[in-house]
Amino acid sequence: MTSDPPPSALSLQHLTKRYGPTLAVQDFSLDINQGETLALLGPSGCGKSTVLRCVAGLEQPDTGRVLMHGRDVTGLPPEQRGVGMVFQDYALFPHLSVLGNVAFGPKMRRVPKEEAERQAHEALSLVELTGLEDRRPDQLSGGQQQRVALARALATGSDLLLLDEPLSNLDERLRGELRGELKDLLARSGAAALLVTHDQREALAVASRVAVMRAGQLVQVGRGEGLFAQPATAWVAQFLGHENIFVQPDSTALVVPEQALQLGQGNAYTVTTQTLTDSGQNITLAHPLGPLHLHLSPREMALVEGGTLRLRVDEGRVLRVREDRDGAGSQPQQAAGAP
Ligand code: ADP
């Protein structure tokens, strides 16, 4: 006898949400498994936070359902959903100690003081802040405040965590460091996590699966490397950082990944631009497909001879995708008269 698989930790079914004339989220469906971190990735204004707010109960979808472990919570207020949230600005209480901030959730749930503080200590140990319990938020670094916010979400004991751009208030260096840390912490917590971000690197570094969102709709979901290797459309390819995308006459586009470029073989093409970087050179080649961008290591730079570079494009590795970059709502509006 086979038993049914357990229901997803979180299941979003056909969510739609309007704000007046703005269709913020449109027929959005997604499932997250227990223990999984999923990143909701998309440009600013595409509806990510609205999805998150519908999950938290801070916003009511116009249509569609939110299920947690198979239970329909769509009509429930936030406090009855039991999710842990980490906001962009951390929203720590400035007048409470670190311990007070983290124990706040359990105390609100009427957990006795001693037990609430035990849970807070446990969460603080998980984020490696033991020893800083008595400090106030303004006596902590940005990274430490971020970890307090995460500990506070963990101390809710919830098996579903919602994180809204949790690293965006930190400087670039710290953000890079904390990505790996956040991934480990979330894995250790065993919770399902929905992470909202507009930062491709953050999504790929922290989450095991990434859902790409554009103009209120889900456009592609998959494992991070898989998405980059197999973007569904030209817009996804460009958004994830592919540089060589060439429009074809038939509304498709060719995406040429770096692995398709074989240097030092084939025809010689003229180098049209050349810029030094800290790890080599960025160059542009006049290729029949169009201007082709390459990053050359110092060793590869030796292959440039007389202003040309030999290059073969391995056609087996070139992707043909749908060209969707000039559809409605996809590009920032150009001001009248702009080039
Ligand atoms: P993201 O999180 O991807 O930046 P949001 O979910 O915040 O996007 O916003 C999606 C769209 O809905 C945007 O066009 C935004 O201006 C609009 N929007 C969000 N919240 C409100 C609101 N409370 N009232 C009116 N429009 C809103």
Automatic annotation (TrEMBL):
UniProt name for this protein: ABC transporter ATP-binding protein
GO biological process, one term: quaternary ammonium group transport
Lineage of origin: Bacteria, Thermotogati, Deinococcota, Deinococci, Deinococcales
Membrane-spanning intervals of the chain: none
Pfam families xref list: ABC_tran
Keyword vocabulary terms for this entry: ATP-binding, Cell membrane, Ion transport, Iron, Iron transport, Membrane, Nucleotide-binding, Transport
Signal peptide per UniProt: none
GO molecular function: ABC-type ferric iron transporter activity; ATP binding; ATP hydrolysis activity
GO cellular component: membrane
Domain (ABC transporter) ranges: 10-240
InterPro entries: AAA+_ATPase, ABC_SmlMolc_Importer, ABC_transporter-like_ATP-bd, ABC_transporter-like_CS, ABC_transpr_FbpC, P-loop_NTPase
